[in-house]
Design brief:
heterotrimer, A alpha/beta (259), B alpha+beta (365), C alpha/beta (310), A: alpha/beta, 25% strand, globular, B: 365 residues, alpha+beta, 2 domains, 12 helices, 39% helix
Chain lengths: 259, 365, 310
Amino acid sequence: MSDDDVLLQVDGVCKNFGEIRACDNVSFELWPGEVLGIVGESGSGKTTLLNCLAGRTEPDSGLISYTNRRGEASDIFAMFEPERRMLARTDWGFVHQNPRDGLRLDITAGGNIGERLMMVGARHYGNIRGEAETWMNRVELELGRIDSLPRTFSGGMQQRLQIARNLVSGPRLIFMDEPTGGLDVSVQARLLDLLRELVRELNVAVVIVTHDLAVARLLSDRLMVMRHGAVVESGLTDQVLDDPQHAYSQLLVSSILQV
Amino acid sequence: MYVAVKGGETAIENAHQLLAEERRGDPDVAEIELTQIDEQLGLAVDRVMTEGSLYDRRLAALAVKQARGDVIEAVFLLRAYRTTLPRFGASEPIDTARMEIRRRISATFKDLPGGQILGPTFDYTHRLIDFDLAEPSDDAPEAPLAETPVNDAMPRVNELLESEGLLERAAPPEDDPEPFDLTREPMSFPAGRDQHLQNLARGDEGFLLALGYSTQRGFGRNHPFAGEIRMGEVAVEFVPEELGFAVELGDITVSECQMVTQFTGSKEAPPQFTQGYGLAFGFCERKTMAMALVDRALRAEEFGEAVEYPAQDSEFVLYHSDNVEAQGFVSHLKLPHYVDFQAELTLVRRLRADYEQAHRQEAAE
Amino acid sequence: MSARKRKTRHDDGETGYNFAYLDEQTKRMIRRCILKAVAVPGYQVPFGSREMPLPYGWGTGGIQVTASIIGRNDMLKVIDQGSDDTTNAVSIRAFFAKTADVATTEETSKASVIQTRHRIPERKLRADQILVYQVPIPEPLRFLEPRETECRKVHAYSEYGVMQVKLYEDIARYGRITTAYAYPVRVDDRYIMDPSPIPKFDNPKMDNSPALQLFGAGREKRIYAIPPYTTVHSLDFEDHPFDVETWDEPCGLCGATDSFLDEIILDDQGGRMFACSDSNFCTARRADGHTGQFAEDPIEESRKGEPAHV
């Protein structure tokens, strides 16, 4: 793979739920190491789009093509299911808004972090544990909690654990659905700093869905504004936020500023 | 020589003899006859035939006698016998619309063509122990005859609703494929309605009753109305290959329940009621009602409803409904497990030793 | 139809049933499943399990497999917990003696078909022997994932990481792997398989065995197999390798130090002894002159002086 290859190519993705048009002809490209924010009100289709991109919901039409480490691009819904499932637990990560959806609650923190390694064949307990400790450190979780169950963690700690569990496999692309959504403001700020550092350091590409423009501004290089399933505006983050062109983007930005 | 448990053939043989003695009971009391079981404990026979999946009153009565009245044991006996029978073919589907009605009620319409017929039901009996039954009586009870015979035309309530488009049509699936045969093939998932219904038809009445009840209490509610319950005799027809036309083999008694349930609809399709179905050999009304509730609950996914509760969970219901399977696996805990237990025992002792050593070390430090 | 008339319908000898109980069509169906199981080692083949005259959970899967492969010249051995004398082993042996009129033996070396529940005989099996296991729950993932549909995907795609997570958790919590029986194995480097509830002590005997090993689960309607000379690896970690139980004492009857021992409680004062679970192995050793500390009947010994009771 080289950095010249598009990582994710999205072309004309549509998804309806009955009468409701959740994704309406969405197209974009994502480059390695790039952070793309998708903003819009709830119900604008951004989470549906994220689920399509991550291979969790099949679109009604359109193409989503991912370029693997060998530089081969393929349609993620045309590939054999085990191949897609393998990508989802090696090359990709998915950070849920509610960490309970992304963690195994009856497995220790160490086991949660180690799972991806074991999924791809790690069979040395000491090494797996060492890796888990490294990641506990990197996401600023106390090492003494490595054998604790996630249900005994606070919301912020659970979210950091979920991030560690995803990053341990060295993914190239992470999908995030309102990763700071359920957290207190002070906890949010620390988590955002941590996320920004890790993303830059690991050079991992991110698609992050959020309704919070402050989160979008802090993390993303580029923004897409969605409304009624369609992308109404996209561009560099600062450009979209400081000089929105579309009436809806202007409304969105001004409503935030007024708060 | 020492052997931990010496079961031995003699012990087993003696146990069998003791069982036979207890089964017979006090020899001064007259031995019960199969005709007595069939005639006077007929509902037990019906249940054994239904869950044993074999319509043979005499054999079911024998099973009840051999099992000392243990219905599940009797079902097991009948099933084990059934599985050895050669199969000549499949009969034509029975037509319950042409049933010779002995009971027919609808909770959805006050009156309907053919009327409501109560039949031999416990429904409005007061559950007072009848001490007159304690002693045999020479007077055979006799019910009065109706002034007019039962109407020949007895259309099913559901058909009346179907013709108006108010109820989903009970149509065979596209191309009408051969139905699944639960007695020849292992279950597979996702299971179609043919698998569901076969499984429920032989499923344990108690299990289905509890599940059906749970849907009424909100664990998967589907707003049921007893559209129609009927019981009576239907003809069984068979087409022998060499003849090429249907020959009537005889009549069997069946009970049927059609539940009218939660309506569905969308902008494309007008709203209509949905259905749940129950059928059993003999007079097993409670079973058919429970079955119809669970059948409908299992169709949740088909109607785009959330699958959240036990009665809606196809794997859960289908894998646990069969009382022959369930009683076998529960009762196998009686078999010796001392090798497994020894393995666990050795392990727990080792873990305790590890634990103690770790604590000694901690204390020393 | 009278019950009497029915009784003679499948006449084959005295029992009124076909040879080895099952009808020939059913046996053919089961043999086809066995062939498939042998062709795909460790893969659970669904089969149309029949209702047997013994309860589900009491060996109906093993019985159906045995019934489908046994011939008139076979020599059958049936063990439960390693012993030929336990009630269910006696009952199953009697079933085949009655319905198939086959010769039976307690001697492992003389048997051509051995049906077992929970043990593998201590004596090494040969290529001309078949071991038939009775299996209660064939799905090794069942207690991690109760759904059959998801389990089948995990097997199909070899997504076995979750099994390893279970072992990781054992070590994290207890310092060692805490599965003592039904210890999962990987067969031929492909399918993860439940070896039935044998103690993990027996796991190494499955690896590269010259004998064909067949597994039958009647209630769950699955058959699987380990063909002769197939690699069977017990799951573990490189730094926490698989190990087997050991005892501090030898067998109290034959003095063996390399067999699986049952613990026998002798009195309520903490008195106990250990004896081979494989009764035939133990008997043979004693016939060869090996003795243990309790070679005299210990129960008789311990009861001396007590009032006789029935």
